From TrEMBL:
Residues 67-218 form the PiggyBac transposable element-derived protein domain. It comes from the Eukaryota. This is Transposase IS4. Residues 9-34 have a biased composition (Acidic residues). It comes from Popillia japonica.
Length: 226
């Protein structure tokens, strides 16, 4: 896969972007319930709409496990972010549980992709957008959702992904607040690399955006806007 890049200085210097900030219509979470009474922190983002292009979210909610937690129940959930009502869920019972109900070909995919496909089955063909975090994001997931008439936007963990273009990576020469786009030549996917602080780059992946677009009110790229 080949990428070509385009740079822009369009992010506020005093605003740090560590994750995709959206308020999606649905939240897919990975929660662990234990016998101990604990508070679960949900990291929800911000974008909601009533149109056919309503955004969904695939996000992982992980608890900080303490020493006394020895067992629990892990549940993969798809929730409505506006009402907090549960939309879809399943109990994680082991490595093969993410693929229950999927075809033989789908079960050959990575576990995060299997989990997303399983929970988003009722949404296939709806032309909606799925928003996710590092654990879910991959080119594989983007392609599988595209086959199901769904797009994807999410943070892209550089340690687990192959980003060959040096312009998209963190380096001291990139000014704080700069944004650099990478466009694939053979697949409809866009990478956005933002510099929130010196020598740090946050990379986002999107199959919903195909050109550099900026929110004029907030001076932020559309991919990462509030």
């Amino acid at each position: 896969m080949q990428w070509y890049v385009e740079s822009k200085d369009e992010v506020d210097d005093d605003e740090e972007i560590d994750d995709l900030d959206r308020d999606p219509d649905y939240v897919l979470s990975d929660e662990e319930q234990t016998t101990q009474e604990r508070n679960v922190e949900n990291d929800n983002g911000s974008m909601s709409s009533d149109s056919e292009d309503d955004l969904l979210s695939v996000q992982t909610t992980m608890e900080k496990c303490t020493a006394f937690v020895k067992y629990g129940i892990k549940i993969q959930c798809l929730d409505d972010s506006a009402t907090s009502y549960l939309f879809n869920a399943y109990i994680y019972t082991g490595r093969d549980s993410d693929g229950i109900g999927l075809s033989e070909e789908e079960r050959k995919l990575s576990k995060p992709t299997q989990s997303t496909i399983r929970l988003c089955k009722p949404l296939e063909g709806s032309k909606r957008n799925v928003t996710g975090d590092n654990w879910f994001s991959s080119l594989e997931l983007v392609e599988e959702l595209r086959k199901r008439s769904l797009t994807y936007v999410g943070t892209y963990y550089k340690k687990n992904q192959t980003i060959t273009s040096p312009e998209l990576k963190e380096n001291k020469s990139r000014p704080v607040g700069s944004a650099c786009y990478g466009f694939a030549s053979d697949v409809p996917v866009t990478l956005l690399s933002i510099v929130p602080k010196i020598n740090k780059a946050v990379v986002l992946i999107s199959s919903m955006h195909d050109k550099p677009e900026t929110d004029s009110d907030k001076n932020k790229p559309e991919i990462a806007k509030n």
